[in-house]
Amino acid sequence: MLVLVVLATSCSVKARSEYTFKFQSTDGLGYRAPIKFLGVEVGYIRDLHLAPDGESVVATAYIMDPNMRILQGDTAHVVMTALLSAPEIEIVRSSTNRAELPAGSTIEVSPLSKETKDFKYHADGLVEAIIAARTNMNAK
Description:
The protein is α/β, with parallel strands linked by helices and 140 residues long. Helix content is 19%, strand content 31%. The chain has one helix at 114-139; strands spanning 17-23, 34-37, 40-50, 57-63, 75-79, 88-92, 106-110. It has a 7-stranded mixed beta barrel with strand order 1-4-3-2-6-5-7.
């Protein structure tokens, strides 16, 4: 007789962790925008909506990477990694000597820097001008 025993205790898999991210400005951040840590995608944004204060925006954030731990004191920023890329969230570790931030906690997210916003504004204008020029050229 063959007996198969499976020990589930050694196979604990962390389910996704859910946090609330709060923004003063989403800077174009959209549904399913990636959340990254050290450049590696660890989660995504969902359910962007206006906060009860009527001024800020809140979003549900899911951390899908079972090895990712958001620690107390970590910060989150809206960033753009390339000229024409969509905004994303980057989590920055403040110190490794901190306790884990409990799932369900709220994390304030810093907006894009003024320099990045200005650069994006001018780059978007340049792209629009190129598209318009190409459209006019193709119409002739």
